[in-house]
Amino acid sequence: MKITPFISNVGVSNLSHLIDHQRKDFYTFEQIRQKVKTKNCMQYYSLLSSIPKHIKKHIRENLTDCFNTFNPEDIFLERIKNNKDIKFVYISLVNNIVHIPMQKFLKWEEKLQCDIPNLFIYFNILRKCCKNVYLINFQYKFLHRVIPTNTFLFKIHVKDSKSCSFCNVEDETIEHLFFDCPCTYQFWTVFFECLKRYFNNIELNKKNVLLGFQTLQDNLLLNLLTIITKNYIYKCKFKDKIPNIVELKFKIKNYYSLELYIARKKQ
Ligand SMILES: [Zn+2]
């Protein structure tokens, strides 16, 4: 049987190349589309449906023979066959999937007007300072700049205006909402005045607040408090209310009580 050119061009020359030996059936389109490099599932399934039933039956019943003719260059498949420990499959998948969004990271440099030679240090700070999944998720998105501010919500026609939820004057960007807005800046100033009683040499600047205290990276508590505060500002935005220092203290106390409770439970 002649194989259709759209898959023969990528090295599929034998029907057995289209067999999933674990399921003892032909690959689904999802499984094979990387190999054949096409988005046209109709073309693939029409190929399969054109294979006469008795040939399909013969191929399935003689899978061992088929396997011998399977592309010997498929080293990955060979490794799966011969290894009991298949953790390498997971590692390979992760390595292939992981995509580092450098454009978004570079945007921090542009917005903060400073060099950030290693943004990953802030991910390390996050990993060390915070164990709460919700807050980790929040700061992770924050570092990737995927926080939906009004500028973005306006762009996708969810909001009628891109002006700031707090001051209603400037456009609401990440930098404005979480630091530059007069309401937010005032809030940070009051909060940092409180923190200065407990932490020496802390400086209220945009980079520290938005990304993390790199110079004080061992000061995990300070970094954690900053993340809790940013998350509180974010919640205030959606409730249309100005951040309030009394409420923030209450939130921090709640967080502390919850962590204490979890720690005692684990003991
Ligand atoms: Zn504002």
Q: Nutshell version of this structure?
A:
The chain is mostly helical. It has helices at residues 5-8, 29-36, 41-49, 53-61, 63-68, 75-82, 87-97, 102-112, 120-129, 133-143, 150-155, 174-180, 182-195, 206-211, 220-239, 245-266, and strands at 19-20, 25-26.
What does this structure look like?
- The protein is an all-alpha fold.
- The chain has 2 domains: 5-97, no CATH class; 102-266, no CATH class.
- The chain is built from 16 helices and 2 strands.
- A two-stranded antiparallel ribbon has the order 1-2.
- Helix 9 (120-129) packs antiparallel against helix 10 (133-143), helix 9 (120-129) crosses helix 15 and helix 12 packs across helix 13 (182-195).
- It is elongated, with a radius of gyration of 28 Å.
- It starts with a helix and ends with a helix.
- 20% of the residues are buried.
- Zinc ion (ZN) binds at residues 164, 166-167, 170, 176, 181.
What's the helix count? 16
Number of DSSP-assigned strands: 2
Radius of gyration (CA) equals: 28 Å
Q: Structural class of the secondary structure composition?
A: mainly alpha
pLDDT < 50 runs, ≥5 residues: none
Provide the succession of SSEs: HEEHHHHHHHHHHHHHHH
Largest sheet: 2 strands, antiparallel
Distance between the termini: 67 Å
Shape: elongated
What is the helix fraction of residues, given as a range?
55-70%
